[in-house]
Amino acid sequence: MGDSSILDGVFDKFVNGTKLFKDREALRHDYLPEKLPHREEQIKLLGETVAPVLKDARCSNIFIYGKTGTGKTAVTKYVLSHLEFKAKEYGSPVKFCYVNCRMTGSEYRVFASLSQSLGAAIPFTGLSVGEVFDRFRNSLDSTRTIFIVVLDEVDALIKDRGDGLLYELTRINETLSKSKVSIIGISNDLRLKEYLDPRVFSSLSEEELVFRPYDAGELRNILFERSKISFYEGSLSDAALSLCSALAAAEHGDARRALDLLRVAGEIAERQGAKLVTEEHVKDAEKHIEHDRVMEALKNLTLHSKLVLFSVYHLGKSSATTGEIYDVYNKLCDELGAGLLTQRRLGTLINELDAMGLLNAKVVSMGRYGRTKKIRLEISRTLVKEVFGSDVRLGHLFDKT
């Protein structure tokens, strides 16, 4: 009986307690608002670029860059849904398909999604990528369609699988007789050019759009507009709103992070039975989100990145050199029977972990002995132990430390 009465208490408190949220869905990442503050210029540019499809012409391929939470996806979906509506009005055969490459995962699934949006059934597995591509091309050419393909987070696919898929897509118009394809690629990584074959890159980025991060004032407007839909009037303090904007602007102008902070702060306040979301709730939300982000990042690392991080943990010093880390990493690979990476590749992994904020790698001058890299853990040791301790392949290594 004990547990269910605890839950009754929790649920009753929630149903009968103070209500702060009018519509919490409005704070989710995939919510598309009526208007997008501070993105009028990008909306206009993208609109002008895709407009030719209304006259049955193919529009240029477009490459959109910008960090997470700068409105790339929202603007693209906003413009294309208006475009589709207009196309019906003008009787133009325009269709678009949105695919998130990080969620979809493989080239097979990307082409399967594109084919399905054209009404062609593709089995979940079992065909070769080439075959799925042919089916996609055939179903396209059996109808007269101007097809706009949106590949969001395309950087995830390229880093994982190379640029074969994009190459095929950029050449597809040469073999189509009735239909035309345009591609909109969206990337969170500004250095994506470095991963792409120059030919693919030039045909992919006939037009380029760059989204810069929002500043604190712009974020505050975005949050204010969104809070009118999501919170009851008078349940959100100005100070809480300003702090969310300031924290997200300091990060890198990430509206997604600002909305997350606001939502989690509201949930914390609601759980405490507070009538007003305050700065304190936002500070709690930040700790909570940061902890979750780091946990998530640690769990999703590749095996070798985990081993590098574990090597730094194992050394247990305030800072270690690349050489020391490589020695421990070497032993760990032996023990796990994992193939060894070169010291140069290890350096790249250290830089990636540094960029993610899990390690801190600083180049220090040793006077006449040259320069060396000092590397230390940027996150708490208990967190590493908590995540890696429950990892099937790494758990037993802790008994030795």
* Known CATH architecture of the largest domain: 3-Layer(aba) Sandwich
Radius of gyration: 25 Å
Total domain modules: 3
CATH topology of the largest domain: Rossmann fold
Instruction: Compute the number of helices.
Output: 17
What's the CATH C level of the largest domain?
Alpha Beta
User: pLDDT under 50 segments (min length 5)?
Assistant: none
Q: Which oligomerization state do the chains in this entry correspond to?
A: single chain
Shape: globular
CATH superfamily of the largest domain: P-loop containing nucleotide triphosphate hydrolases
Q: How many β-strand runs?
A: 7
Largest sheet: 5 strands, parallel
What share of the residues lie within helices?
40-55%
Average residue pLDDT: 89
The helix/strand order is: HHEHEHHHEHHEHEHHHHHHHEEH
Decide which structural class fits the backbone.
alpha/beta
Strand order of the largest sheet: 2-3-4-1-5
Strand percentage, roughly?
5-15%
> Could you give the distance between the termini?
43 Å
Compose a concise summary of this entry.
This protein is an alpha/beta fold and 401 residues long. The chain has helices at 2-16, 40-50, 72-90, 101-104, 107-117, 129-141, 154-161, 164-171, 198-204, 216-230, 238-251, 255-271, 279-299, 303-315, 322-336, 343-355, 381-389; strands spanning 62-65, 94-100, 146-152, 180-187, 207-210, 359-365, 371-377.
Topology:
Blueprint: H1 2-16, H2 40-50, E1 62-65, H3 72-90, E2 94-100, H4 101-104, H5 107-117, H6 129-141, E3 146-152, H7 154-161, H8 164-171, E4 180-187, H9 198-204, E5 207-210, H10 216-230, H11 238-251, H12 255-271, H13 279-299, H14 303-315, H15 322-336, H16 343-355, E6 359-365, E7 371-377, H17 381-389
Parallel strand pairs: 1-4, 1-5, 2-3, 3-4
Antiparallel strand pairs: 6-7
Helix pairs in contact: 2-3, 5-6, 10-11, 11-12, 11-13, 12-13, 14-15, 14-16
